Amino acid sequence: MSGPQPSGAGRGNWKNLAPSQADEDAFDYVKFRNTAKPSGYIGSVANMVKGALGGGILGGHVAYMKAGIAVALPFNLIFGIYMTFCLHILVLSAQILYRRTRVTFMTYPDVGEAAMACFPNPKVAKYSKIFRYTIDIIIGIDLYGSCACYQIIIAKSIKQLVENLDKDAPEDAGRDIRIYLAIMMIPVILVCLIIHLKYLAPLSIVANLIICVCIFLTVYYSMINNPTFGGMKLYTEIYNFFEFTGMIVFSMSCSGVVIPIENNMEKPKNFPKVLLTGMTIIIVFTYLVSFFGYTGYLEKCESPITVNFPMTFWVPFVYRTWLLFGQILSTSWSYGRDLVLVSSGGVYGAPSFSWVWEFSY
Predict the structure, then answer these.
(1) The pTM is what?
(2) Which of 51, 124, 296, 343 would staple 254 via disulfide (CB 3.0–4.6 Å)?
(3) What CA–CA distance (Å, rounded) separates 165 from 307?
């Protein structure tokens, strides 16, 4: 086969093998990729949207309540655009590093380590492994924390459904929430065994449709509860802005999934289109749930938004049942990214014995 060949570089062994732009462009990483189950455009967009719109979007209305409507509306858009730009730079940098190091794919920590290892100044390059471990730790805290949050959200939703509890019920009402945490382990584990993004894509589409229903119900109950859009605060205390920032960024964040999605795309060079489409949907959905959720419930907002829906009508009851599926799928997403951190290879495009890590984990 003519042209530059893959170098076989990997963790701790990154080198810049393209001294000129012509050498860099000569390596076609797409041609050498051997993705078992590549995802198409729609599947990639669905996976990106689902990677962001997990439990976080269901708490966006609380973020609006914290900051005030005059602050929340513009900064929601500013943060969304800024995150889109950062994700574009991240994946663009990864694709440049593929060509410079002659590899076909990288994980998130690989990108950080390779970028520093290929830096011309050896005084900077020698810290590449430390930089990698720093990325591992930060992502691990984020993803393990997300998994913990999803477990609580799922258990709380199951408890409310099974015991028909109102949102104003005390925390200690009914059975201990740890009982529901134990019950849900089986379905969560089964969904987490799905490791290929191509197989997760149909489930992601269904989960995204469930989020659409959530948006419809949020707007519907908002119009019933507060048709005049009155009672909303324009702004609050300055320290509430930082809490708003954390909540709204978490609602739209998909930084941990963009690299795996690009690695598993059938046409990875079309990723900018996937990113633009996916982030547009994410920003619009976050706006709708957050604004109308705050409008409908004002200072009585609780997270997730679904606990505010009344239990007296069959639609919210059935919807909450379906929403559990979406929340479990979000757990699967976070779990898959966690596994990348603890396995010798990656879940996506991993070596032959990656299944051993999968079942052990």
Answers:
(1) 0.79
(2) 51
(3) 9
